[in-house]
Amino acid sequence: xxxxxxxxxxxxxxxxxxxxxxxxxxxxxxxxxxxxxxxxxxxxxxxxxxxxxxxxxxxxxxxxxxxxxxxxxxxxxxxxxxxxxxxxxxxxxxxxxxxxxxxxxxxxxxxxxxxxxxxxx
Length: 121
Hints:
Oligomer: single chain
Number of domains: 2
Structural class: mainly alpha
Helix content: over 70%
Number of strands: 0
Number of helices: 4
């Protein structure tokens, strides 16, 4: 359709109004084509970049009783080391929390000893 208006513009235009009408029709058709191309690009881009999610599962036979799982020796030993470390961490955290009281006690007993020695001189 745009090409037909271009042919009309080149061959059959006699007056200035015919030229303006043909150019206006070409402009409208070109704008519509560009709009449709932009919309097509907009619709194609999300499809190209959209994530695809797959859910894969395996069918297993139903059983009434579940299989029993027991930890082997190395797993039990590592769990024991982990549980044994917890009290050591707690003692360290208690000492960190009580450090001001410890230093106040040292300061008190240090001054007490200095006072008693001062009196003996």
